[in-house]
Structure prediction request, 111 residues.
Amino acid sequence: MTAEHTAAQAAEDRTLAAATARDLRYWTSRLQSAEVVTPPLDPGHVHFGSTVTIARNDGRHQTFRIVGEDEAEPAKGTIPYVAPLARALVGRAVGDVVRLGDGEVEVLEVK
Prediction:
């Protein structure tokens, strides 16, 4: 990122320099506020970083990993820890059924 910013400045590309400067500020801020999350003592319960497989009441099975907001890509199987589904599942274990909206989901697997 800093190399891109330096190159944009050298090329006198103000638009690109402004965009890279903004990105640098953003990532510097995120780095300063980042926290290391230690694995829980009981890995059998859903937590930040867990890969969870659920069964929806319509028969669909879904697997996803609970991650930070910047890492989340639902289409690729990651959801942010602040998502309603993730918040509802944190602390749950295999076999637990959670009410979510108009339906329910059952925890099938936690890794």
